[in-house]
Amino acid sequence: MSKGANNTLLQRNRDPFIRIKMLMGIILASVFLFPIIWMLFVSIKPEDMSITDPIKWFLPPYTFTNYLSVMAESDVLLWLWNSAFIGIATTILTLIVTSLAAFAISKIKFRYKKFIFLFFLAGMMVPGEATIIPLFEIVKSMNMLDTYAGLILPMIASPIGVIILKSFFDGVPDELMESAKIDGCSHWRLYWNIVLPLAKPAMAAIAIFTFIGSWNNFLWPFLAIVSEELYTLPIGIPSFNSTYSTTYVLPMTVNAVASIPVIIAFLIFEKQIVKGVSFTGIKG
C-alpha cells in the first residue's frame, strides 16, 4: 500500500466524527431512496386491493400483472421511445454545436469574438420561460410544431455548454496548436484530432446534463405537441394518471416503468455522472 493511502487511512481513523458522518449519510440516502422503494412496492400490489395501514404496502401479496395492464392500457413504451430519441438527438446536436462554437471563440482569431462571447454570457441570465412565446412563434412560422424537429432543434442552444467548453479549450496550450498548424493541420483537424479528444470530461458533463434536462422537460413539449404519437414521458404520464386519480397502483406502475430505465442508466454511468457534477461545479 502506498504512503498516500496510509495517510488517508490514518486521517480517516483519526476523525472523531466519522461514525456520525456515516450515520447521517445513511439517513439522508434512506430519505431519498424511500420514495423509489415505495413506488416499486406499490407497483406490484394487486390493483383492487384496499390499503389502510401504510406498512401493508410493503407486505405480500405481490403481482406483476399491473405491468402488463399498463403496457396494454397506455402508450408508455412509445413515450419512453420518444423521450429517449429526443434526449439522445438533442444531446448529440448540442455537443456538436456547443463544441464548434466554443472552439471558434477560444482558438480562432476573428473580430468581435469577445463581444459574441458576451452574448453567450447574457444568455445564461435570461430565464427559459421568458423565451417561450417568441420561440413558439418562430417554430410555428417554420411549420415545425408537432414534429420531432420542433422538439429537438429549439433545445440545442446551450450557453452554459459553450462557456464550459470555451474555458476548457482555453487551457489547451497555444504552442500545441501552432505546432500542429506548422505541420499542415486545418482548423477542422485541430478541432477533431487535437482539441476534442482532450475535452472528453467536459463533453461528458455537458452530455449528462443535456440529456437529463431533455428527459425531464415538460413545458416546451407541452406547448409544441398536439399528437399523442409524439408524447414524451413528462406529458404522457400526467395524462394517464388523470384517469386513475382514485387509485395508487396503476399510476405508480407507469411511473415505475418510466423510472426503471433511468435508474439502470444511473447505476451504469454513476462514476461519469459524479465526475460531471464535480467537473462543472454544479450542485443541487
Automatic annotation (TrEMBL):
Annotated ranges, domain ABC transmembrane type-1: 80-269
Residue intervals passing through the bilayer: 20-41, 78-103, 115-136, 148-169, 190-212, 248-269
SUPFAM superfamilies according to UniProt: MetI-like
GO biological process: transmembrane transport
Membrane topology: Multi-pass membrane protein
Family matches, as InterPro entries: MetI-like, MetI-like_sf
Keyword Transmembrane belongs to the record: yes
Localisation per UniProt entry: Cell membrane
Domain of life: Bacteria
Transmembrane as UniProt keyword: yes
CDD domains: TM_PBP2
Gene3D superfamilies in alphabetical order: MetI-like (1.10.3720.10)
Pfam families (alphabetical): BPD_transp_1 (PF00528)
A GO cellular component annotation in the UniProt record: plasma membrane
Keywords from the named record: Cell membrane, Membrane, Transmembrane, Transmembrane helix, Transport
Family affiliation: Belongs to the binding-protein-dependent transport system permease family.
Name recorded for this polypeptide: Carbohydrate ABC transporter permease
